[in-house]
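User: Can you help me understand a structure? I only have the sequence.
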Amino acid sequence: MTAQEVLDLIKRNQIEMVDFRIVDVPGRQHHVTVPAVEVDVEMLENGIAFDGSSIQGFRGIEESDMVMRPVLESAYVDPFMAAPTLGLMCTVYEPNGTRYERDPRFIAEKAEKFLQDSGIADAAYFGPELEFFLLDDVRYDSSPSGAFYAIDSEEAFWNSGRGGEANLAYKVKNKGGYFPLPPTDTQQDIRTEIVKELMKAGIRVERHHHEVATAGQAEINFRFHTLTKTGDTVMMYKYIVRQVARKYGKVATFMPKPILGDNGSGMHVHQSLFNGNQPLFFEEGQYGNLSALARHYIAGILSHAPALLAFANPSTNSYKRLVPGFEAPINLVYSKGNRSAAIRVPVAAVTPKSARIEFRTPDGTANPYLAFAAMLMAGLDGIERKLDPTQLGFGPIDKNIYELSAEEKASIQNVPGSLEEALDALQADHEFLLRGGVFTKDFIQNWIDLKRSSEVQPLAQRPHPYEFHLYLDL
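Assistant: Let's start by predicting it. Here is the structure, written out as tokens:
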């Protein structure tokens, strides 16, 4: 779109407010709103100023002047605001007009350019499957005198004996929430409304359903797209899910493990490479009908997985999901149709153009621009170095890995056990991310320092309620 076409859209839809939105380093969206009568071609082309020191992960107060410049084709008539509002995704610039190196969207764009310059392919396609919970009540606190959290859902199994009002039963059992019909599935209508809003926003939705866990776990799948565009879609998806949930009096969370003893929420990421219309991951008759190039790509992801998880699973809560027994993809191997492997090769109803790999370890706390860019760089490193996943001990393994003997499991590498371990791995293994200037040393060190200072260390310093259960009487 051109700036004039955006102005025409504003006029045609009688827009009163224009919302300019950016994404910070961890992956949260921020916005500033301008009356539509003040928006002109110059503002749409040159952007508006903001205070970068107030955005997490950007820069200090001594150099805080920054500019957000709208991505015009992202224009979106927002149905959730009381006044007619147009939303615009923005990229971040220095005051001198150069792109800001810590802008996550810029990193995604650089990764796509690096791919094209490599001559390996001209497009990388990403199709994430985001799982989330729709909860009815969320309370938490952490203070010097105490800490707690409490969540609730009308369909949670722990409410099967609840009194005080009519209990309509049909609760979802732990690990019993995959595909049940209503009335057990109480959230059909809310998911359908989410889908309708996603489609109005121009997002192609393929399906929606209740997921495995109790307490309102859901999944809505949208159509794959190129790397940066898919990052944009993830941010829009999260926004719409949260807004529709709030309309229904519910809270949507993409936390990987909000519930003890049941499945967590992941973001399984399907990936493939193309040259024009030519798929590069397909070779009929090979294992999983995968080409040699696809196997090199797999080897790159698995060999760099400990470091990748610092971006793909970037929260302390991520590693409460990555434990055995809850369909958690903790095993660094690949396998066709096997959900106990970190990388699954889909084999059902697969055509040459739909041949792909599915990296199952990531979760929804990831900043999608950073996670997808890092995955692509790891895969390309595997291609350029012609890494062989079998020679590196990454399978294929076509067995339920959770049921293997201790001796059989001994040769299988696992994901890091904590965010701190993943950050240590990133500190030691990040040269593959620096190629082509996609990531910079400054960005990676800033990411590591930010995660350690704002998440790892504060959590480590706080007494946990369960510690009172374990140690009060010692």
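Now, to help you interpret it: Residues 227-247 form the longest helix (21 residues). The chain has two domains: 3-100, 116-130+220-228+238-471. Let me know which part you'd like to focus on.
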